[in-house]
Design a protein that fits this description.
The protein is α/β, with parallel strands linked by helices and about 350 residues long. The protein folds into two domains: about 170 residues, NAD(P)-binding Rossmann-like Domain (Rossmann fold, 3-Layer(aba) Sandwich), CATH 3.40.50; about 140 residues, N-(1-d-carboxylethyl)-l-norvaline Dehydrogenase, domain 2 (Orthogonal Bundle), CATH 1.10.1040. It contains 15 helices and eight strands. Strands 3-2-1-4-5-6-7-8 form an eight-stranded mixed beta sheet, sandwiched between helices. Helix 5 links the parallel strand 5 and strand 6. The longest helix has 23 residues. It is globular. Bound molecules: nicotinamide-adenine-dinucleotide (NAD) and SN-glycerol-3-phosphate. The site of nicotinamide-adenine-dinucleotide has 26 residues, from helix 1 and helix 4. SN-glycerol-3-phosphate binds next to helix 8, helix 10 and helix 11.
Length: about 350
Amino acid sequence: MMMTPNNGSKQYTIAILGGGSFGTALSDISAQNGHQVKLWMRSEEQVKGINQDHINHRYLPDYTIHPSVQASTDIQATLSEADLVLIAIPSQSFRSVVQLAGNALEGKMVISTTKGIEPETFDLMSEILFEELASIRVGVLSGPNLAKEIVAKAVTATVIASEDAELCEIVQKVLHSDYFRVYSNHDVYGVELAGALKNIYAIVSGIGAAMGMGENTKSMLITRSLAEMSRFAVKLGADPMTFLGLAGVGDLVATCTSSLSRNFRVGYALGQGKSLTEAEAELGQVAEGVNTLRQVRQKAVELDVYMPIVEALHKVIFEDFDVSQLVKGMMLREQKTDVEFMVR
Ligand SMILES: NC(=O)c1ccc[n+]([C@@H]2O[C@H](COP(=O)([O-])OP(=O)(O)OC[C@H]3O[C@@H](n4cnc5c(N)ncnc54)[C@H](O)[C@@H]3O)[C@@H](O)[C@H]2O)c1
Ligand SMILES: O=P(O)(O)OC[C@H](O)CO
């Protein structure tokens, strides 16, 4: 497919922190659009792979990325001339990387693409950025964005959320191409929370898939997951309408139905009777949903939010309950209304 560089508009210097699947995919999109792209990663060997072979041998070995992407293990050099910074670091290491970057991030537009919640603090990544840095412009990017599909240039859309309308416009221009479309939203908390929460339900869907669930069950699960995650997010201050968009229902569908999703795969392995340790070891990559489940279940108890699917998954993963008994129990609960946030 012919790539059209970014409609002849301004070219930016973009720094990407994190050389896993998504950081690499974002580097490729940005470089395809003619921007100067610097990718920071920890491993010298992987830096060599990107700079010499244009391949991320560990995370995306089957794809060649744009040859202009320059990788480095030097975070300060990566950030020094950047106009825009995209962070794709798992949530448990996000704060430490922001601290390592330190002043080099000050004054810049910084976008989190991480879909998780910090253990212990219940902070979302945008909150960590505001806590750690004095003067930055913050955005979050989230949506149905399986990295392998993006590097294969499958037609994809995402959401940039920020209260800074100019930042949203710049990110839209920078990343937009004939295979990647960027929508904007001002509900930062909702977009970010949606990206984190859907990982829990992808694990549940993976378990269901391994157990041979049919289409009725799949639809029920996805729809009730959407109801549950929006109920929780609204309690925390998000806009329920965000959950009808790409960052909500869009990402939920992609992640709950694709075996490319690491969270779905962890669930699938659990559904085959493997332990969590075995499932995570087999994956060898980050599945954010396991930590998110712990955080969300604890918060739901604290805030008294009704989350039967989260409760059931917590019992299966951390309390050794039998899945089929739990499903029966859930089906026999009190009947509820279909849609909670009716306009009238
Ligand atoms: N892969 C996807 O399809 C995708 C899509 C959208 C969003 N995300 C989100 O992006 C985030 C990153 O995911 P990923 O898929 O790139 O993960 P990954 O497991 O493929 O890679 C994680 C990368 O972060 C690096 N890393 C971890 N801790 C680090 C530290 N302390 N310092 C420096 N580097 C560190 C690892 O070395 C690795 O390169 C996650 O929150 C994920 O939910 C992933
Ligand atoms: O592989 P997962 O489960 O982390 O999902 C990747 C992306 O978040 C899908 O949008």
